[in-house]
Structures are given as structure tokens and as C-alpha cells.
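Worked example 2:
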Amino acid sequence: MVTRDSDITRLLDRLESRGLISREREVKDRRRIQTHITEEGLKLISGLDGPITDCHRRQLGSLGEKNISTLNRLLEEVTHDLG
């Protein structure tokens, strides 16, 4: 995925204005900004678990348990390799 920093900054600005995240600049290296999810953000995310699970079932359900296990293992390997 290719994105520009300004796009990320605008996204974070919108999330912060909605109270879903907070940001604070690091003291030692003021170029770095720590971003934290707020309680309101956690509430929003928790409401997504069911719909996302349903979406995954619709998209991947026809693969069967064995193939889904293989897919899971492969995805874990890829994400582990990314570090």
C-alpha cells in the first residue's frame, strides 16, 4: 500500500477530532508522536467484532476448515517475517 504522510496525518486528525485517539509528542525525540486509542475508540472497535466475523465467514466459509487453517498458518508466517 502506497500512502503519503499527509494522508496519515489527516486520518489521525479526523480520529482525534472524534475522540477516538489521542496523540502526544515524545520528549526525547520531538519528531516522534505516540498515538493511543481512547476508551471511545475501544468501544467503537468492540462493536466491529461481530460484523467482521460475519464478513469473514461469507468470504472464506467455502474454503473449509483445513484450508482456512492453512491460510491462517501462511498469513502468520508472512506477518512474522515482516517483523
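The radius of gyration is 18 Å. Strands lie at 21-25, 33-37.
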